[in-house]
Design goal:
Helix content: 25-40%
Number of strands: 16
Radius of gyration: 27 Å
Number of domains: 5
Strand order of the largest sheet: 1-2-3-6-9
Shape: globular
Length: 716
């Protein structure tokens, strides 16, 4: 094994973009995906899925110690070979099962989730465990769509194909030519229903910071004596993918930023990528829409190098792109920053790159003008919003633009105005009996109210909040009851309810189905409440629109407000600093003590101290989220910084499940499967209440800002 092997993770990097191999090996480059796998697994319960899957192949994986614990690749490979020796001995018949096995051949190394060796049939089973749900339809069509392998599944299929390739070479190295490698995926059966509460609690977790590798690890503890009979293994599906892997190994590899001559087959691509990895050289071929999601991009003023800007600068130098701007300067907005929403199946980023535009301000109207221009809504068309974003990015432009036609609906709002925000989770292994994998659990909401007096003055208060982090207790139906009490304390809904984007409507419609199927005394009342403030969506929808259907502020912003400060995003995490920048008189209100807090002018449900809370401070760079307390506490090292990143990442395009409410989801899941003291649970709960409080306050600030802009006639 070489000192710089091409591992599974680095193969996936090369597949996404070979230039990332260089950036990932040099810590001077900002990496926005640092610990992303850790966070995703913590958020959706992937670690528990991995532990549970071991019971499919061994009756007592913890007691037998089937897992290779070492993180050192050389040590792990040595231990794996030692464990494999009995299975490869002449006359051996007993299967050997190894979890986190290391397989190495030349420049290649993989850590296999589960390796099952059957000497009787001379088969090496390479098993990859994923916390991704699958249905029978996807399995029947072999993870394909009309144009080939489904892009949602391709990364997982290439992952197991790479492991299969390495395993076959290991057998060749060991002169075991009569043996065969059988690749398998273990996935979540989306149609399964869990039969008992607390399944996930059988696999407790704790977070560990690995200082040497500058990354987090999760330690999963499985109780002694746990057997497969005590688990619900029907949640898992084992899928043989030998035929699919064989096809992937033969056909050209799909890698957007790699030369075609190195992509003729999987073996060709692996040989080329391992050479890049071994040499440590920086390779650049081109740019693509994949650059939009590249993690190696630094923001203006941020420490560390920006790989994306270096790639765009190189593309201009090579003549792949052209620009009148210095695209190596990270303060320069790039063409891929153009808002890509509501563009149908086409990629706006692909379109402007194919024309050769490097900077945002290089784009002209004709580059992005749609073939048809059908206006279906009042306010800005998607094309007009993109044009406005480009216009605002030019030197000397106004800081923002308003569309009065869209914003005129503000005059129709009935006061008081209710701002609500939900926190939910959808774990791979359901927390509660009767639920399916990835079914929504609602555990928290925040509620701000804006009221107008007869003189036109506006008062604001944090009116209600609710949270449940009790382990083993399904909070969802009580969540609906408490929300109804908050919005209808006298039994009648006065005013207008607001959400930001689709999440709240989707959650309530999902919970409506659960309530209908559940035998609760107040089911009719809860269903009527949900129907009042929501509308049905999706295929098979009843076409229902509630009498007081929630108003979507995200839609209003999309159609009526464009700010240069938001950088093309409509995520509330970007719109909040934008409106504070564009309406300084609103920002001033939240920049001084004695205004916001319990018993103060803007009362809060949380105790921020006698002087209240200052949301905008120089120390936090004017970012309200930076003023919030840590969720997990100082003993968790950089974990809170990672969670903060989740709270501030863009949710508009390509947002993962982590990004959507990632802080609360990750923390809530942790309260369900970790062994916590009462003090730790209360601390996490208190922090989550404040995070959610800021989400509804952000909606208040947005409305305050829009009202102020309209009052001054939209003057800049």
């Amino acid at each position: 094994m070489t000192a710089r092997p091409l591992t599974k993770s680095r193969f996936k990097l090369a597949l996404a973009c070979p230039t990332q191999l260089y950036y990932s090996a040099h810590r001077e480059y900002v990496d926005r995906n640092a610990d992303n796998d850790f966070l995703k697994a913590l958020a959706d319960g992937g670690y528990q899925v991995g532990e549970m899957a071991k019971f499919l192949f061994h009756p007592d994986p913890a007691g037998a110690g089937i897992t290779v614990e070492s993180l050192d690749n050389a040590e792990a490979w040595t231990e794996t070979r030692s464990r494999l020796s009995p299975a490869f001995a002449p006359g051996a018949t007993e299967p050997v099962v190894i979890a986190e096995a290391a397989l190495a051949s030349g420049d290649l190394l993989v850590r296999v989730d589960i390796l099952r060796v059957d000497p009787a049939s001379k088969v090496l089973e390479v098993i990859e465990v994923k916390s991704k749900s699958v249905g029978q339809e996807e399995i029947a069509r072999e993870f394909r769509n009309s144009s080939g392998f489904d892009p949602d599944w391709a990364p997982y299929l290439y992952d197991i194909a790479f492991q299969h390739l390495v395993a076959e070479r290991v057998l060749e190295d060991l002169s075991l030519k009569t043996w065969k490698v059988l690749p398998k995926l273990v996935l979540i059966d989306r149609d399964a229903i869990v039969r008992a509460d607390g399944l996930h609690q059988k696999f407790g977790v704790s977070g560990i910071w690995d200082e040497a590798r500058k990354r987090h690890r999760i330690k999963v503890s499985t109780p002694a004596g746990l057997t497969a009979d005590q688990l619900d293994l029907g949640l898992l599906r084992v899928v043989e993918v030998g035929a699919i892997v064989a096809e992937l190994e033969r056909q050209p590899v799909s890698s957007p930023n790699a030369p075609l001559e190195h992509c003729a087959s999987l073996a060709d691509f692996v040989a080329w990528a391992s050479g890049l990895q071994r040499s440590g050289e920086r390779f650049f071929y081109s740019v693509s829409k994949a650059c939009k999601k590249c993690p190696y991009r630094a923001h203006p003023g941020e420490d560390g190098n920006s790989g994306v800007h270096e790639c765009f600068k190189e593309a201009v130098r090579l003549g792949v792109l052209s620009s009148a701007q210095n695209v190596g300067d990270r303060s320069t907005a790039l063409s891929i920053d153009l808002w890509g929403g509501r563009a149908g199946s086409q990629s706006i980023a692909d379109r402007v790159l194919s024309i050769g535009r490097a900077a945002l301000t290089d784009i002209v109207d004709e580059d992005i003008r749609p073939k048809t221009f059908n206006r279906t809504e009042v306010g800005l068309h998607a094309f007009e919003r993109r044009v406005a974003q480009i216009r605002l990015a030019k030197p000397g432009s106004a800081p923002f633009e308003l569309n009065e036609d869209a914003l005129s609906e503000i005059d129709e709002w009935q006061w008081p105005l209710h701002m609500i925000d939900f926190e939910t989770t959808a774990p791979a292994i359901p927390f509660f009996a009767g639920m399916r994998p990835y079914q929504t659990v609602a555990f928290q909401f925040s509620h701000h109210v804006m009221e107008r007096d007869s003189g036109g003055g506006i008062s604001i208060r944090h009116a209600n909040q609710w949270i449940s982090t009790q382990a083993g207790c399904d909070p969802s139906i009580e969540f609906v009851r408490e929300l109804k009490r908050a919005l209808m304390p006298e039994g009648v809904l006065e005013g207008t309810v607001f959400r930001y984007h689709n999440h709240e409507n989707t959650v309530l419609r999902s919970l409506r189905h659960r309530i209908v199927e559940t035998d609760v005394a107040d089911a009719d009342e809860l269903v009527d409440f949900i129907d009042l403030i929501t509308h049905s969506t999706g295929k098979g929808g009843e076409g229902h629109v509630g009498e007081k259907d929630m108003v979507d502020l995200h839609s209003l912003v999309r159609r009526g407000y464009v700010s240069a400060k938001a950088g093309g995003s409509i995520s509330l995490k970007y719109i909040l600093p934008a409106i504070l920048h564009d309406v300084p008189e609103v920002a001033a209100r939240y920049s001084v003590p004695g205004i916001y807090g319990r018993g103060l002018k803007i009362p809060s449900c949380n105790d921020w101290g006698p002087s209240g809370h200052v949301w905008l401070t120089p120390e936090a760079g004017g970012d309200p989220y930076r003023t919030l307390p840590p969720v997990f506490g100082p003993e968790y090292g950089p974990l809170d910084e990672l969670l903060f990143r989740l709270a501030t990442d863009d949710e508009d395009e390509g947002g993962s499940a982590i990004t959507q409410g990632g802080v609360a989801m990750t923390a809530y899941n942790y309260t369900q499967f970790a062994q916590l003291s009462d003090f730790e649970r209360e601390r996490i709960q208190a922090a989550l209440l404040r995070y959610c409080e800021l989400d509804t306050l952000a909606m208040v600030v947005l409305v305050e800002g829009l009202l102020a802009l309209r009052a001054r006639g939209g003057e800049h």
